[in-house]
Amino acid sequence: MRSCSHVLPLGVLTALLLSQVCSGIKWLALSHAPASLHMNQTQHCKLLPSMVSSQAQLCRTNIELMQTIIQAAREVKNTCKKTFADMRWNCSSIDIPADAPKYQPDLDRGTRETAFVYALSAATISHTIARACTSGDLRLCSCGPIPAEVPAPGYRWGGCGDNLHYGLIMGSKFSDAPMKMKRSGSHANKLMHLHNSEVGRQVLREALVMKCKCHGVSGSCSIRTCWRGLQDLREIAMDLKTKYLSATKVVYRPMGTRKQLVPKDIDIRPVRENELVYLQSSPDFCTKNEKQGSVGTQDSVNKINWTDKITAVLMCGARGYTPYTEKLVERCHCKYHWCCYVTCKKCERIVERYVCK
């Protein structure tokens, strides 16, 4: 992907907001925006000069939406790290400094890690916007529509459902805009990113479930008021992680009258709409390789017990690991005394840990 070297620094705030990366996930650099920042005037859009024209236009016409997008960028970063905390690739490259020239190679090469980040980013921005409509943070939208189907006996529609329809429209407009430009990288990469972003939104659609609140005398549940609400983002991320683990490697080649992405090893079928796809194989992320974006797991210390030795093997790879023990002193056998204090004893226990060789 091309660099954005033509963009000049515009002060400290711009440095915090701007990651000089021309890619579909450059908006994630907004996670560096200070918590005190409030995008409430049209001229604030000028603080984000790396946006493509359609994103800048969306900012000017929906300035209050930008605060929600900044929140979504933070959610992507935090959720990605939590979801991959037990993996060799732990999403650390998503949190690059705002003034860095580009993303790390693991997010720039069309790998399965890239696929996950694009899918999560697309799902998160729409999820955050949909929830902001429900909470009243956005004036241009409100609660989601009441479902058309008739509820079962003892149930009634009510409450304030998440406005997924509005979230999907505005989220895709903003996050997909860079990939729809003519000069935004190879056509194969654009197709890959657009496909994976749509997979993320599909998982989000499936996460819209019925939620209910009970009503009745003395705690009974004779009547339930229900609405359509989104599952927590962490659950959506775990669904996408499952798709990441089973992602399909694809190639860009002629199919009929035009080129498209097809599975590399089973090209007799088209790419499925619900599968993540990638173009380049990932490094093992076990050994440090800056060229490929692998920070390695050398000296990564992790807790281990008899039930998760598989994690040790996965984290350290062929290098293996060196186990050692550590003595921990903890409070134990605590008792409450009337009234009103607690006394505890001190207990020692031995914990087995390891460090990659």
UniProtKB/TrEMBL annotation:
PROSITE patterns in the record: WNT1
Gene Ontology BP term (one): animal organ development
A molecular-function term among this protein's GO annotations: cytokine activity
Signal peptide: 1-24
Keyword rRNA-binding included in the entry's annotation: no
Gene3D superfamilies cross-referenced by the UniProt entry: 3.30.2460.20
Superkingdom in the source lineage: Eukaryota
Pfam families: wnt
Compartment(s): Secreted, Extracellular space, Extracellular matrix
Main location: secreted
Cited function: Ligand for members of the frizzled family of seven transmembrane receptors.
Family to which the UniProt record says this protein belongs: Belongs to the Wnt family.
Name of the molecule in the record: Protein Wnt
Organism: Monopterus albus (Swamp eel)
